[in-house]
Amino acid sequence: MATYKSELATNATAQPVVKTNPEKTGQAYNAGETFSLTTDHDAADVILMFPVPTNTTVRALLFSTDGASTTGAADFGLYTLGNDGTTLTAVDVDLFASAQAVTSALTRSDITGEAGTITINERFVPLWEAAGAASDPTGVYWVALTVTTDVDDTTVIGLEIEGVF
């Protein structure tokens, strides 16, 4: 029988112990919010959910919905918000999920890699790197959803992020 070690295990058992990359063992970062999508929300509307430090390593973006609408979908991605509090700049509008349906009841469904942009390895790099930036812009990104298909009835959604920084 052979024993193999991950990078974390190798570093933790080395003599002397090797400091591990903070993206793998940093402090926990969690945020969450709910929002009611209504027939007032049209395709291309952006709903800001919560800020996330740009150096956060996202382990999971968890999506919940009551599925009350028979139509409706949204992209889940990142924006920056200007100092005026109203100017949005898209970083990657569907970094996490693209045209995610809101029509079926879901509880904490992991949509982190639904769009195919976030790979397994990118769950272990800072968010700015996963989003394709050349360097850390510092500050925060806003996790947001962009309506891609109108809902036909009020639908409650919940979004949670789990990560480290």
Note the main attributes of this structure:
Jelly Rolls, 3 helices, 4-stranded antiparallel beta sheet, 45% strand, single chain
Task: Please give a quick description of this structure.
Helix content is 9%, strand content 45%. It contains 3 helices and 8 strands.
Account of the protein in words:
With 165 residues, the chain is mainly beta. It has one domain (25-164): Jelly Rolls. The protein is 9% helix and 45% strand. It has three helices and eight strands. The protein has helices spanning 7-13, 22-25, 127-130; strands spanning 28-37, 46-53, 57-65, 73-81, 88-101, 106-110, 140-149, 155-164. The strands form two sheets. A four-stranded antiparallel sheet has the order 1-8-3-6. The chain is globular and about 60 Å long. The model has no long low-confidence stretch (mean pLDDT 91).
Q: How confident overall, as mean pLDDT?
A: 91
Strands, total number: 8
**Residues in helices, as a percent range:** under 10%
Strand order of the largest sheet: 1-8-3-6
Strand coverage percent: over 45%
Tally of separate domains: 1
- Written as H for each helix and E for each strand, in order along the chain, the element string is HHEEEEEEHEE
Major sheet, described briefly?
4 strands, antiparallel
CATH class category name: Mainly Beta
Q: What is the name of the CATH architecture?
A: Sandwich
Radius of gyration: 18 Å
Low-confidence blocks of residues: none
- What structural category characterises the helix and strand content? mainly beta
